[in-house]
TrEMBL record:
This is Putative zinc-or iron-chelating protein. InterPro entries: Puta_zinc/iron-chelating_dom.
Amino acid sequence: MFPCSKCGCCCKRIDKAVFNVGIKADDNALFFPYTWDSTGRCKKLTKKNRCSVYDNRPLICNIDKLFELLDMPKNDYYKLNIDICNTLMDEDKVPLKYRIR
């Protein structure tokens, strides 16, 4: 399972995170049925950094399931997503304790 730190950065920057995972733009996996605000924050993210539709979240929001569609070893896909997560955390000045190693 992906080692998510639950910092919420990917959900607060969904406008950026959705398009950085290496999937072709015409792929249905990119379908994101919800909206985000002007800062990129998904409107399904609660004030407590929890997804209000977690059990039914879009495929693009589920690293473990999305991996199955890609022609990439799971560990490589995890590393790619860890790099994206940590970059978003750096940009948002999230405390180091949330960094994924």
